[in-house]
Amino acid sequence: MKEAITNLFLKILGKKQGYCCKDCVKNLYSVMDGEATKDQEEYFRSHINECSPCFNRYEIDKSVKEVLKLKVEHKEVPSNLIASIKNKLNQ
Amino acid sequence: MNSLKGAKLIIILYKGTTLENNKSELDKATKDTLFEKEFMPLIGPLYNFAYRLTFDEDDANDLVQETYLKAYRFIESYEKGTNAKAWLFRILKNSFINEYRKNAKLPGKVDYQEVESYYNSDDVDEPITTDLRVDAFKDMIGDEVANALNALDVDFRTIIILCDLEGFTYEEMAKILDIPIGTVRSRLHRARNLMKDKLREYAKNMGYGKKE
Which domain holds residue A61? Predict the structure, then answer.
């Protein structure tokens, strides 16, 4: 079991196989972050249908982004902070 | 000597008042409403940003408090209807740099010039990983992704927080951080690669370090 999990992780994150061009990586982030123009996005979407390194790279980066949003703990604002700010402002 | 200091102080105070009088177009009630309606609702994201910068509840408290006091003081320079969140994040980030970073036990500044020129050069090929199972990935390493974020140098951590947790656009991040958009891109790129390096380390350690 331990080995299987490790292998999975190494597969997901570790193996350095296959290369694509620098522009693809730049486009990949633009698309992922909602910064791409319509043309860039269309081009990238059709590109990843044919290019498996870029497809995989996109899926991994996108899931890291999603996991961050989901899993990073949200700290509660201390209850006295708002009052203390207002207090200071009224001084 | 003392009187000289006193005189200087008076001049400074005087300048302060005239400046304020000239700029002050909003009355107190308007300021208070603006503050209450547009700024106070953002305290959650601001507190979380402060906490992820300092890793200390008291420091985060101080930083948020200082941010709001500055925001109130400079409320005239805030244009209504513009992005209050980006404006407040910028104040908080600048306060952090001024007040905390210089004293800090925090990691030193990274030489971006070097990093960024490396990443902007044409001969960098990206290693591409293969064979993906996104679902398994999400379930298994949620905590490790958060840990990897916390382990990043503060500038890399900041860009990931702004982009991935808070959803700022590249343009907003450029304004918050006072850097060109090209630098936003390359710093984000570098930060994400570092995150994945850390996750890769975790994967390796897991093979040896974890009990069944």
Answer: 17-73
